[in-house]
């Protein structure tokens, strides 16, 4: 891969990984601060995560081998880039467009334009904050370079340039100004407490949160135990044993069981503000069925293999997926079997408030 493709690939890969790790809290915060979650808002945050990684990958990668490092100089003279530009041919527009010093300055500006845009669009801050953020981010990158990635190398392998600080900051300012021309309407902020319909996307988001809670918790438990064992032993990471895997399964399983038995909904459904409003069966029976034909059944069938377990798991997933689209209010299989009706939490709150006011 080329020196351009490798940083882009790493930025997309790591940025998407961070987005997955942050998805559950992102959903919870979006529903409580914005009233809901939109595809556009999610896409902008994903782009921000990838961009944040791109800032690092394009300024630090590729990392040279330690035995091949060449110590770089330090440039502390402001506006040195003007002399650098004049040292090349500047006699025509084409010459300027191909001037290496001009291209360097332009890239330093363009690289930080998205930062200023994100500061205004996502954080709601103006030019002053964008300027300080651009300066701080650029300084962090430059000092990471000059210290050889904070002591990892014996000296800097890229030039510390004060002009880079200036141009990066300018880019953030221009991005903040440009965002004024592209202001998005902030959906949901004006009616955060207003009830929203139960949509397919909302139901699938809750299901995805449930699965991520289980998978990420299990992965975290395995990682913590593995690293702890490696530190206490010979430093070699080993595959976690059955006890560790069991702990990683039991804790999220118990949390989901408690949530369904006590509230009638899963943790993921609570994150997207879905509430159980009616159970046509006895509560204990209905909520037990809700758990077994929902997240509980999926976790059990995924964890323990027995004859026909794979077929049962496939049928559970397939039927549940179809019924999310075809049932009233997109209740799905577990709600139908358990006789559970669901609604927006805010609709219940509004009903209770109306009855109190009446």
UniProtKB/TrEMBL annotation:
<feature type="transmembrane region" description="Helical">
    <location>
        <begin position="243"/>
        <end position="261"/>
    </location>
</feature>
<feature type="transmembrane region" description="Helical">
    <location>
        <begin position="101"/>
        <end position="119"/>
    </location>
</feature>
<dbReference type="InterPro" id="IPR006976">
    <property type="entry name" value="VanZ-like"/>
</dbReference>
<feature type="domain" description="VanZ-like">
    <location>
        <begin position="49"/>
        <end position="181"/>
    </location>
</feature>
<feature type="transmembrane region" description="Helical">
    <location>
        <begin position="282"/>
        <end position="300"/>
    </location>
</feature>
<feature type="transmembrane region" description="Helical">
    <location>
        <begin position="43"/>
        <end position="61"/>
    </location>
</feature>
<protein>
    <submittedName>
        <fullName>VanZ like family protein</fullName>
    </submittedName>
</protein>
<feature type="transmembrane region" description="Helical">
    <location>
        <begin position="165"/>
        <end position="183"/>
    </location>
</feature>
<feature type="transmembrane region" description="Helical">
    <location>
        <begin position="126"/>
        <end position="153"/>
    </location>
</feature>
<keyword id="KW-1133">Transmembrane helix</keyword>
<dbReference type="InterPro" id="IPR053150">
    <property type="entry name" value="Teicoplanin_resist-assoc"/>
</dbReference>
<dbReference type="Pfam" id="PF04892">
    <property type="entry name" value="VanZ"/>
</dbReference>
<keyword id="KW-0812">Transmembrane</keyword>
<keyword id="KW-0472">Membrane</keyword>
<feature type="transmembrane region" description="Helical">
    <location>
        <begin position="306"/>
        <end position="325"/>
    </location>
</feature>
<feature type="transmembrane region" description="Helical">
    <location>
        <begin position="204"/>
        <end position="231"/>
    </location>
</feature>
<feature type="transmembrane region" description="Helical">
    <location>
        <begin position="6"/>
        <end position="31"/>
    </location>
</feature>
């Amino acid at each position: 891969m080329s020196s351009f493709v490798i940083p882009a690939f790493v930025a997309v890969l790591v940025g998407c990984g961070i987005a997955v790790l942050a998805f559950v809290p992102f959903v919870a915060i979006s529903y409580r601060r914005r009233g809901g979650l939109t595809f556009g808002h999610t896409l902008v945050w994903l782009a921000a995560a990838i961009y944040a990684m791109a800032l690092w990958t394009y300024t630090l990668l590729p990392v040279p081998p330690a035995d091949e490092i060449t110590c770089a100089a330090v440039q502390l003279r402001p506006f040195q880039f003007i002399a650098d530009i004049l040292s090349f041919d500047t006699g025509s527009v084409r010459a300027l467009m191909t001037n290496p010093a001009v291209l360097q300055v332009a890239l330093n500006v363009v690289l930080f334009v998205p930062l200023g845009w994100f500061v205004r669009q996502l954080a709601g801050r103006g030019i002053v904050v964008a300027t300080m953020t651009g300066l701080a981010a650029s300084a962090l990158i430059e000092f990471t370079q000059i210290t050889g990635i904070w002591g990892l190398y014996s000296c800097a392998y890229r030039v510390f340039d004060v002009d880079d600080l200036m141009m990066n900051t300018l880019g953030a300012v221009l991005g903040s100004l440009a965002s004024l021309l592209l202001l998005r309407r902030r959906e949901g902020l004006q009616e955060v407490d207003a009830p929203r319909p139960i949509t397919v996307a909302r139901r699938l988001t809750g299901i995805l949160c449930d699965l991520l809670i289980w998978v990420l918790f299990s992965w975290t438990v395995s990682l913590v135990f593995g690293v702890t064992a490696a530190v206490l032993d010979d430093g070699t990471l080993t595959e976690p044993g059955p006890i560790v895997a069991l702990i990683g399964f039991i804790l999220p399983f118990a949390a989901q069981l408690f949530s369904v038995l006590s509230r009638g909904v899963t943790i993921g459904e609570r994150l997207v503000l879905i509430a159980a409003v009616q159970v046509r069966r006895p509560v204990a029976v209905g909520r037990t069925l809700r758990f077994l034909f929902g997240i509980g059944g999926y976790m059990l069938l995924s964890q323990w293999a027995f004859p026909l377990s794979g077929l049962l798991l496939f049928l559970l997933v397939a039927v549940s997926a179809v019924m999310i689209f075809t049932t009233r209010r997109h209740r799905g299989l577990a709600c139908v079997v358990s006789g559970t009706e669901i609604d927006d939490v805010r609709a219940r709150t509004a009903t209770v408030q109306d009855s109190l006011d009446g």
